């Protein structure tokens, strides 16, 4: 075999063992988005456990409802001081917040979206209904594990609070296992780990833990009693519906 053939064979071998062979970064990210937004609608009980550096915990509970990709509502049911607080995510990255103390809903501004989502380690940007494909440009990084795709996501908008996110995807099902977040100064400051479970034909994140490295603080989210495709009414996802009935 001459040198040219050797080079061609070597190049072909490198392409075939590359994690991007047969899959583009864009198609992988779109696959993750499709898995995460597959149900027509869903409803679940949400438990949040906030833990500080001393190990002290605060527990919150809420009812979460979502229809399609862009309509999502959280309504807190515990503790007492949080009862009635609600958030509504709508298309075009619109988020509304209702706080009983003010007895009205307020629109979350672009600046506020980089801040903590109701005191947790998630930001309003993290809780956005917009898909990752809409908000980020991906590229495949070298993977140290043949069961994982590693993607680097670069924000399309300068308004994002992140300079990049590194995502670790399960190769078989394309759900996220871990996400590493870098701030505007390119400092790695928090990460999320995911535990996915299948119910019927859908995969969903049964547990998500967001760890803020700089603050030594974490927020753990559990989903229970999840229901899919109930035919939720559009009327549930309106600003008027944020205010609880008396």
Summarize it:
By secondary structure, this protein is mainly beta.
Shape: globular
What CATH first level would be assigned? Mainly Beta
Instruction: Give the number of helices.
Output: 3
Task: Calculate the terminal CA-CA distance, rounded to whole Å.
Answer: 83 Å
Whole-number mean pLDDT: 87
Residue share in β-strands = over 45%
Output the strand order for the largest sheet: 6-5-4-3-2-1-13-12-11-10-9-8-7
Largest sheet: 13 strands, antiparallel
Topology pattern, helix = H, strand = E: HHEEEEEEHEEEEEEE
* SSE class: mainly beta
Q: What's the name of the CATH homologous superfamily?
A: Lipoprotein localisation LolA/LolB/LppX
Tell me the domain tally: 1
Kindly state the number of beta strands.
Answer: 13
Q: What oligomeric arrangement do these chains adopt? A: single chain
The CATH topology comes to outer membrane lipoprotein receptor (LolB), chain A
Give me the CATH architecture, please: Clam
Helix content: 10-25%
**Poorly predicted residue ranges:** 3-22
Task: Give a verbal description of the structure.
The chain has one domain: Lipoprotein localisation LolA/LolB/LppX (outer membrane lipoprotein receptor (LolB), chain A), CATH 2.50.20. Strand 4 and strand 5 form a beta hairpin. The protein has three helices and 13 strands; from the N terminus they run H-H-E-E-E-E-E-E-H-E-E-E-E-E-E-E. By secondary structure, it is mostly beta strands.
Which helices and strands occur, and which strands form pairs?
Elements: H1 3-17, H2 25-36, E1 41-51, E2 57-67, E3 71-78, E4 86-90, E5 94-99, E6 104-107, H3 132-135, E7 136-141, E8 148-155, E9 162-170, E10 176-183, E11 188-199, E12 202-212, E13 217-228
Antiparallel strand pairs: 1-2, 1-13, 2-3, 3-4, 4-5, 5-6, 7-8, 8-9, 9-10, 10-11, 11-12, 12-13
């Amino acid at each position: 075999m001459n040198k040219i053939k050797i080079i061609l064979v070597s190049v072909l071998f490198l392409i075939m063992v590359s994690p991007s062979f047969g899959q583009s970064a864009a198609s992988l990210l779109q696959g993750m988005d499709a898995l995460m937004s597959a149900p027509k609608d869903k409803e679940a009980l949400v438990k949040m456990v906030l833990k500080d550096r001393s190990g002290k915990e605060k527990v919150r509970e809420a009812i979460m409802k979502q229809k399609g990709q862009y309509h999502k509502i959280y309504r807190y049911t515990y503790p007492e001081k949080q009862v009635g607080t609600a958030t509504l995510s709508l298309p075009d990255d619109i988020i509304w917040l209702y706080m009983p103390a003010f007895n009205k809903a307020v629109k979350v501004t672009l600046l506020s979206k980089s801040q903590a989502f109701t005191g947790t380690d998630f930001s309003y940007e993290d809780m956005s209904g917009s898909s990752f494909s809409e908000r980020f440009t991906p590229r495949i990084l070298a993977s140290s594990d043949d069961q994982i795709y590693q993607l680097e996501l670069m924000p399309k908008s300068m308004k994002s609070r992140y300079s990049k996110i590194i995502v670790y995807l399960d190769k078989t099902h394309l759900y996220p296992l871990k996400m590493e977040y870098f701030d505007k100064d390119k400092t790695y400051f928090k990460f999320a780990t995911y535990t996915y479970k299948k119910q019927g034909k859908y995969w969903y994140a049964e547990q998500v833990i967001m760890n803020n490295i700089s603050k030594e603080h974490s927020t753990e989210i559990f989903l229970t009693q999840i229901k899919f495709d109930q035919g939720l009414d559009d009327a549930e996802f309106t600003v008027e519906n944020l205010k609880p009935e008396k």
